[in-house]
TrEMBL record:
Protein name: 3-phosphoshikimate 1-carboxyvinyltransferase
Name of the gene: aroA
Role summary: Catalyzes the transfer of the enolpyruvyl moiety of phosphoenolpyruvate (PEP) to the 5-hydroxyl of shikimate-3-phosphate (S3P) to produce enolpyruvyl shikimate-3-phosphate and inorganic phosphate.
Active site: 320
Pathway(s) where this gene product acts: Metabolic intermediate biosynthesis; chorismate biosynthesis; chorismate from D-erythrose 4-phosphate and phosphoenolpyruvate: step 6/7
Entry binding sites for 3-phosphoshikimate: 26-27, 31, 173-175, 203, 320, 347
Gene3D superfamilies: Enolpyruvate transferase domain (3.65.10.10)
Family: Belongs to the EPSP synthase family.
Catalytic activity annotation: 3-phosphoshikimate + phosphoenolpyruvate = 5-O-(1-carboxyvinyl)-3-phosphoshikimate + phosphate
The organism of origin for this protein: Noviherbaspirillum autotrophicum
EC annotation from Swiss-Prot or TrEMBL: 2.5.1.19
A GO CC term assigned to this protein in UniProt: cytoplasm
Enolpyruvate transferase domain ranges (all copies): 15-431
């Protein structure tokens, strides 16, 4: 277990340069773990992410009777699939603050049936799950709230699913649709299952990850745009045998932004042109801000071209990586506006409020709306102690304020409670230190 201090003092850095090998994608890791557990056959997973979010998924699967082994100290795991039949019918599952664990598991366990309780850290109990529970209960699942209606903890009992046609709202989290899609083959084996999205769907590229991985496990989905998804009858998950987890594209954003702000080149290895993660499109935002991006099949590199250009854009498709843009905006030549990020309010913390408070400590002017943030860079970035709100991305993106950009000097930054990075990237600060340089070229 990595040891973290109570706070971390990061010194100003002259420039950013180097290469970082990325940890595995959280979104892909937790989807593959669940699909492998539900599949027929054994899955050999390479480069699984080692983090709090994958740990809670692995522990939950173990409690549910799924057998898996880690190969030595490596990130290779062997999962013995259950074929969708769990041997354990009663379990109490701790889900930490992992949306990618609790939401898909809720749907899968409701479809399989049994007596299960799911709960998490206190913030998890403030993160909505009502749209998913409503969608499942409407087709005969039996899910109750044991705390506040609409939020975990949940108690799932055996229901009587008649799930030919489900409807789900998509405006709060795309993870509800992901959860229903992944559970659909378990719901009605001899009938087509149709899932309709009611109203707007946010964070769309995450649905592409879901559909792509379902396909790798032998289940195809017929779709009508983002409106309706049909899972033809008679499909079961079948292990692909061996599967590799790409590097995490959201984790890549911090290093690529560092290269764009402070010289570069900074290269990340593990994601590239072939990625199935929507967050690789973060580089389009960096390009619009004036950075030069180069890409290979499995790497991306960013370097600066002088002062960053301010940006005004819709970030609904990359909500996680958008936080990195909010901090990069400190180095821009004018105010930047991040639009359509209302989902930030129901994530690890209220990210719009947290981001506004902490950016102001560094001297930025910040205007906060229900679903947007406007950041006016300060003349000079101030030293500050940044609170992280138990949000890994707050801790990671504020490290960028130490960098000397072409237009602005970074400053000393204290990161309070840095251990929250363990949610997705336990070694983040070591990786950041390896590219934040104080020597001259
Ligand atoms: O499906 C996924 O893997 C994720 C979907 C996104 O959530 P929302 O759909 O709630 O925006 C994203 O923020 C989260 O980190 C991971
Ligand atoms: C929103 C996030 O996580 P979760 O998967 O718990 O929703 C995140 O990692 O930024």
């Amino acid at each position: 277990m990595k040891h973290y201090p109570h706070h971390l003092d990061l010194q100003p850095a002259m420039h950013a340069q180097g290469t970082v090998r990325l940890p595995g994608s959280k979104s892909i890791s937790n989807r593959i773990l669940l699909l492998a557990a539900l599949a027929q056959g054994t899955t050999d997973i390479h480069d699984l992410l080692a983090s709090d979010d994958t740990h809670v998924m692995l522990m939950a699967l173990q409690k549910l009777g799924i057998q898996w082994e880690q190969i030595g100290e490596t990130q290779q795991y062997i999962v013995h699939g259950s074929g969708g039949m769990l041997s354990v019918h009663q379990a109490d599952l701790f889900m930490g603050n992992a949306g990618t664990a609790i939401r898909p598991l809720t749907a899968a366990l409701a479809a399989i049936g049994g007596d299960y309780t799911l709960h998490g850290v206190s913030r998890m109990h403030e993160r909505p799950i009502g749209d998913l529970v409503d969608a499942l209960n409407a087709v005969g699942a039996s899910i109750e709230y044991t705390g506040q209606p609409g939020y975990p903890p949940l108690h799932i009992r055996r229901g009587h699913l008649h799930a030919q046609r489900l409807q789900v709202k998509g405006s709060v989290s795309s993870q509800f649709l992901t959860a229903l899609l992944m559970a659909a083959p378990l719901m009605a084996r001899d009938q087509v299952v149709t899932i309709e999205v009611i109203g707007e769907l946010i964070s769309k590229p995450y649905i592409e990850i879901t559909l792509n991985l379902m396909r790798r496990f032998g289940v195809t989905v017929e779709r009508d745009g983002w409106q309706s998804f049909a899972i033809p009858a008679g499909q079961n998950y079948i292990s692909p045998g061996s599967i590799h987890v790409e590097g995490d594209a959201s984790s890549a954003s911090y290093f690529l932004a560092a290269g764009a702000i402070a010289g570069g080149p900074v290269r990340v290895e593990g994601v590239g042109r072939d990625s199935i993660q929507g967050d690789v499109r973060f580089v389009e935002a960096l390009e619009r801000m004036g950075a030069t991006i180069t890409m290979g099949d499995n790497w991306i590199e960013a370097k600066s071209n002088g002062v960053l250009q301010a940006i005004d854009a819709d970030f609904n498709h990359i909500p996680d990586a958008a936080m990195t843009i909010a901090v990069a905006a400190l180095y821009a030549n004018g105010p930047s506006t991040l639009r359509n990020v209302g989902s930030w309010r129901v994530k690890e913390t209220d990210r719009i409020a947290a981001m506004a408070t902490e950016l102001r400590k560094l001297g930025a002017g910040v205007e906060e709306g229900a679903d947007y943030l406007r950041v006016t860079p300060p003349k000079q970035i101030r030293s500050a102690a940044i609170d992280t709100y138990d949000d890994h991305r707050m801790a990671m993106c504020f490290s960028l304020a130490t960098l000397n950009g072409a237009g602005r000097k970074g400053n000393a930054v204290r990161i309070n409670d840095p251990k929250c990075v363990a949610k997705t990237f336990p070694e983040y600060f070591d990786a950041f230190a390896s590219i934040a340089r104080n020597d001259l070229f």
